[in-house]
Amino acid sequence: MRKAVEFMIISALAFAVLNVGVKYLSAFNVYQIVFFRALGSLCFTFPFLIKRRISFIGNKVKLLMLRSVFGFIAMALFFSALQLLPTGTAISIRYLAPIFAAFFAVFILKEYIRPVQWLYFSLAFVGVVALKGFEFQSFGLGFLMAMASAILTGWVFVIIRQIGNHDHPMVIVNYFMLISCIISGLLCVSYWQSPVGFEWLVLLSLGVFGFFGQIYMTKALQGSKTGFVAPLKYIEVVFTMIAGVILFAEQYSFLSLVGIALICASLILNSKY
After folding, report:
1. pTM
2. How many domains does the chain have?
3. Which one of 21, 139, 161, 187 is most buried, by most CB atoms within 10 A?
4. Which of 43, 90, 14, 72 is nearest to 188 (CA)?
5. Domain range holding 16?
6. pLDDT tens, 190-238?
7. Would you give the DSSP letter of residue 109?
């Protein structure tokens, strides 16, 4: 369990650095950011699959393609939201994805949701309202992008569940990164902006931190009970908020902090079920 905690902390730090990097690159088009994020991860997935002699094609090709396209759109929307919203706010909204996943699973996978879980889902909704306020005009473009990203990510969770053990996890990740690299590479041509100096390092680091965030999160989940490990994922919100305050002078009202706390609490409680 101690190792699992250490792995999740490393994972949260890696994802927090990734989020800060995306925020720092707000002058760049989101497709160019996604391109470098995907390209960096492919430098790890390709050698792994070649070394282990695992087929790149996979077995559930249609589901792998669908997961990758939805994942690409979700990632692009989230990176766009990060550029428009305080980092802690964007991440908290995106973490509503497990709620949407549970909702979709009821209809697609015919899974059962316990009554108490709907209470936790309602608690998360109250957190979103507290985070953004009750007025309609507060729901701006960044908020809508973060919500759309959460919905699509929830759908991705269900698709991965449908793939199950038919394909190696690295095959799923490789599909996602390869398709994201191709689509974003084509779309970013018209918006290409040549990086200068330190920007090169930040762009190239996105794939590295993203990959290690995934790897250490996987190790933590493999090494301990999901109910114990999953709530530790929300340390990322704290790390990213602290970085946002220090590096970007972001400010959070008391009501915003209450909203973020409600979202995290509801998801932690739900993870037990």
Report:
1. 0.83
2. 1
3. 21
4. 72
5. 2-271
6. 999 999 989 999 999 999 998 888 888 777 765 666 555 556 666 777 7
7. T
